[in-house]
């Protein structure tokens, strides 16, 4: 390692001489950003002989997660010296840097509202209000940091998660629409869920949630917060959360699925921020050493502050305004094809459907779409990214999809969705349960006036949980549309195919 360090000019005492790619690899920032960070903690120079190396040690620790013994070799210091210098850097960053870039005091509620993005504000807020009165829109979520098992049985019980079957603690983040982290609370016990964490902070005046946010501010949450929704609303906040199944139902209604899609169109931001922390700071990807647990909170908050200062904020996609317009127009739109499928019990009927292959004339009529068309169809990219993985599972073994066509459509469906259509049915395996297969239905127009346009897709439905939605589509529908409209015209491959034959198998 030392020879490689010398070869590639790794000199942590003079960051400016390091190549840019090495500086980013080891420190996670440019040399200019490093010096800005160093200048923000002037007291570090009073604590250690060389502040530049001390800060480098700590950043490399966060960045790589390597053991102190390995890092001591890299920096040519003893382990005790390395740990003492890292502790000094951590203390200075916590005291001088973090309060400037993290916490309820580092920005105002108007600053949070100014970070609203077009999609969440268009779906849940009011973009016409002046900046000083518009509601702030935020997302909350807990993430995981895995811990070692402990001989302290109290700590062992508090950190063991029955859901993850492992030891962990939960930092809790409150995030703006553009990915800026307002604050990171905790860490909390593994046995504490999101709703309980939020409730504890609402009742604790020192946490700042009740005093920082205003009446009418908007919280976009997931189903894990369902038990605290009433408490948030009692405080005057507006809450939005994906819908839950009604009793004795196996699918969300169309309106439930549409409202849930409104939430997921916005809430992905907090998941991205959680992913950034684990991606950029490998210390939190590893199992955290219990001896270091006492400064886990400081380490995580420093990483959040570094992300706020140096990471590019999330911007609106170019199609954001168009997505909002489409979503709002389709919010109350009923899925007539789903109603027809249920009434005719098509999931159990085979006589009206015939298997087709790639040379069938019906597929020649299927619209040929662009990637932008597909993103508009799904109102985002998530389902589009999932489509390739679903495709891979279905083509590796058999080389084909199960796609069926029904030309003889009952008289009641054209009255609602138009004439001159044909019905496609596809079968997509669940990504979670091997024995489960979903039926996807696509009603395609034969009209030449809408050929190779999204309007050719007259209706769609799926038997999955959110398959009745008309705001966007589920990943199963997107898989069929993606392949028939775009994939079969391009050179596509299944993802990670090198893992197909990974396991040892024997013929029976």
Question: Could you please describe the fold and organization of this structure?
Answer:
This protein has helices at residues 2-7, 20-27, 31-39, 44-47, 51-64, 68-75, 79-101, 109-114, 118-124, 153-159, 194-203, 209-212, 229-234, 254-280, 296-310, 320-330, 336-343, 361-365, 371-378, 382-395, 412-417, 475-485; strands at residues 137-142, 145-146, 160-161, 166-176, 181-188, 218-220, 238-240, 354-355, 403-406, 421-429, 437-445, 457-462. With 508 residues, it is α+β, with helices and mostly antiparallel strands. The chain has three domains: 2-100; 102-315, no CATH class; 334-495, no CATH class. Strands 1, 2, 3, 4, 5, 6 and 7 form a seven-stranded mixed β-sheet that branches. Strand 10 and strand 11 form a beta hairpin. Helix 5 (51-64) packs across helix 7 and helix 9 (118-124) packs parallel to helix 16.
């Amino acid at each position: 390692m030392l020879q490689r360090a010398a070869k590639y000019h790794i000199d942590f005492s003079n960051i400016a001489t390091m190549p840019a790619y090495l500086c980013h690899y080891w420190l996670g920032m440019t040399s200019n950003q490093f010096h800005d960070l160093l200048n923000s903690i002037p007291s570090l120079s009073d604590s250690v002989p060389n502040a530049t190396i001390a800060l480098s040690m700590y950043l490399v620790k966060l960045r790589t997660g390597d053991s102190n013994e390995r890092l001591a070799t890299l920096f040519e210091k003893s382990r005790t010296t390395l740990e003492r210098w890292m502790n000094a850097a951590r203390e200075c960053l916590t005291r001088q840097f973090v309060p400037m870039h993290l916490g309820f005091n580092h920005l105002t509620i108007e600053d949070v509202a100014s970070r609203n993005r077009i999609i969440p504000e268009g779906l849940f807020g009011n973009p016409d209000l002046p900046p000083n009165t518009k509601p702030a829109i935020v997302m909350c979520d807990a993430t995981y940091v895995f811990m070692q098992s402990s001989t302290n049985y109290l700590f062992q019980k508090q950190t063991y998660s029955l859901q993850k079957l492992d030891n962990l603690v939960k930092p809790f983040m409150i995030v703006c629409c553009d990915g800026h982290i307002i604050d990171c609370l905790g860490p909390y016990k593994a046995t504490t869920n999101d709703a309980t964490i939020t409730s504890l902070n609402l009742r604790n005046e020192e946490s700042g949630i009740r005093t920082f946010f205003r009446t009418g501010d908007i919280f976009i949450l997931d189903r894990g917060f369902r038990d605290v929704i009433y408490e948030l609303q009692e405080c005057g906040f507006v809450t939005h959360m994906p819908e839950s199944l009604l009793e004795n139902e196996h699918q969300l209604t169309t309106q439930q699925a549409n409202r849930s899609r409104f939430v997921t169109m916005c809430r992905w931001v907090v998941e991205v921020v959680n992913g950034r922390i684990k991606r950029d700071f490998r210390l939190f990807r590893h199992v955290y050493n219990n001896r270091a647990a006492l400064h886990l909170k400081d380490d995580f908050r420093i990483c959040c502050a570094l992300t706020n200062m140096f990471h590019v904020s999330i911007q609106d996609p170019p199609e954001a305004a168009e997505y909002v317009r489409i979503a709002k127009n389709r919010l109350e739109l009923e899925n007539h094809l789903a109603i027809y499928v249920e009434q005719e019990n098509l999931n159990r009927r085979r006589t009206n459907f015939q298997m087709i292959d790639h040379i069938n004339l019906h597929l020649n009529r299927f619209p040929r779409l662009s990637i932008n068309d597909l993103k508009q169809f799904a109102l985002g990219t998530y389902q589009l990214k999932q489509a390739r993985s679903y495709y891979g599972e279905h083509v590796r073994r058999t080389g084909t999809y199960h796609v069926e066509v029904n030309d003889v459509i009952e008289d009641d469906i054209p009255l609602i969705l138009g004439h001159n259509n044909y019905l496609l049915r596809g079968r997509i395996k669940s990504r979670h349960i091997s024995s489960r297969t979903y039926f996807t239905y696509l009603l395609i127009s034969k009209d030449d006036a809408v050929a190779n346009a999204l309007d050719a897709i007259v209706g769609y439905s799926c038997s999955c949980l959110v398959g009745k939605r008309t705001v966007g589509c589920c990943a199963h529908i997107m898989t069929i549309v993606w392949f028939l409209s775009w994939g079969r015209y391009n050179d596509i491959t299944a993802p990670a195919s090198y893992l197909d034959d990974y396991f040892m198998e024997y013929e029976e």
